[in-house]
Design brief:
Blueprint lengths: L5 H14 L3 E7 L9 E7 L2 H17 L8 E3 L2 E5 L3 E7 H7 L9 E2 L2 H7 L11
Parallel strand pairs: 2-5
Antiparallel strand pairs: 1-2, 1-6, 3-4, 4-5
Helix pairs in contact: 1-2
Length: 130
């Protein structure tokens, strides 16, 4: 079982996206009952290699912290990680412009990622999880 709330997990994913050079990182909180998940993280990548690096790092983080997750889906240009209450879409800039996922969840509230990351507590090593 994860020790993170869905909000915390979405912010850790956003931090990883930024650490890996992702651009235009957006975290959206969905209204209760609006979807099967609570948060959506969107990130643009400059290349397929960067998209893969972002997704691999988030998946490794989820695995290390024992966060429930499904296998990575997608391929070059658009990859998705489903961590049950948090969905991460890593897309090329072209794919993000084409599919306009930012507008898909009209009732979603965007978090101020920079401000929220400053409030996020630092992590110990994942091996410290009982």
């Amino acid at each position: 079982m994860s020790r993170f709330t869905a909000r915390e997990l979405s912010l850790h994913a956003a931090r990883i996206c930024l650490d890996k050079g992702g651009q235009d990182v957006r975290v959206m909180a969905l209204p209760p009952g609006a979807s099967l998940f609570d948060y959506v993280v969107l990130v643009s990548a400059r290349s397929d290699r960067q998209t893969s690096a972002i997704v691999e790092e988030i998946y490794s983080f989820a695995k290390a912290w024992k966060v429930a997750r499904h296998p990575v889906e997608g391929e070059a240009g658009w990859m998705l990680i489903d961590c049950q209450d948090v969905i991460v879409h890593a897309l090329s800039t072209e794919m993000r412009e084409r599919y306009q996922l930012d507008t898909l969840w009209k009732a979603a509230r965007s978090l101020d990622v920079e401000a929220e990351l400053k409030k996020l507590p630092a992590l110990d090593e994942p091996t410290a999880i009982p």
